[in-house]
Amino acid sequence: MNLKQQHPETDARLIDEKEAAQILCYSTRALQNWRHRGGGPKFIRVSQRSVRYAYSDVMAWIDQRRVANTSEPI
What we know:
The chain is α+β, with helices and mostly antiparallel strands. The protein is built from four helices and three strands.
């Protein structure tokens, strides 16, 4: 079952950098590096100093990285 099918009411919810980092079990600094270098979940630039993530984008990013064994590419 796809993660979006489990909680459709949360798809449109925006979360801040701290909450996104907690969901991913990474630091906020890691998210900042991903935004700069690429590779992380899609984000929304609200202003010059404010970034938000769509909960659904974070969950989709996680879902896209599921693998069954170590020989599968990411």
